[in-house]
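Example record

One chain of 306 residues, shown exactly as stored in the release files.
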Amino acid sequence: MTRTPPVVVFTGVCTLDTIAQVERYPDADQRVAAKAIITAGGGPAATAAVTCARLGIKTRFIGVVGDDGAGAQIRQDLEMEGVLVDSMLSAPGQASGVSVIVCDSQAGTRSICNRPGPQLDLASHPLALLHLREADWVHVDQSSWRAFKLVSSRAKLSVDAGNPIPGFDPASADLFAPTLLQLRATYGDLPAKSLLKAAIDQGARWVVATAGEQGSMAIDAEGNTFRVPAFTQAPLISTLGAGDVFHGALLAARLHGLSPVDSVRYANVTAALSCRGIDGRSAIPTHAEVMDLLSSLPVIALEETL
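Predicted structure tokens for this chain:
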């Protein structure tokens, strides 16, 4: 009997973003002309879900929107990408999460002004609980980790820890994906290899940390460490959402059957290619496009000095 393809459930933040690309940030009380202004979906877990779906994995998103036009657009954008939204929540009388983002082309940086959306309450939604309990993998962000911890689920857990998560315990994570900066904020100013090992010592099964221009570095439960350099062959327009894309691509790679090393390569390429667009989603590549470029990234032993 053929097994039903696995479903990855992403739960957490979803937003509608208005993004302006400018040559440089305006000074106080100054007006600058934007090179482009677009509206696009955002949010760490939602963008990771779109990535996984774009890369050919059956994907479901659980989050909460208000009963406004922004919420309808957020849901529609996810549906258009093939993400299942049958267990998304709607909060009557509340406004959806939205952001205004200004991207500085010269500096390669961005400023974000966010209005958070409604809080996620899984206990009030039986269908969402059912889908979480039946999932093969569940991916959470900083807003949904605590809510998921209250759910009894057989799923493997992937955690986006690029933002601080109060009270987080990496012992629950089959995949723990922080930034190197976040690891240093947690464990102190240690070399990269020591930081990764500190998370493994606390019980994480696989740790993959992003480090900007240094690429990505990883350690497994057996203590094997490696670093994959950043992929620099794609044009860089904006890094908005690249970390979220990286997390979705990591899971897609594992579900496509790639090894841990090739999964990190795959995620690096996917995130870099997504930077071809102003927003975090429009330039996410397909699985075939990533596989064509996968072998171009070397793997380097992770030295204690990094």
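Notes: The mean pLDDT is 90.
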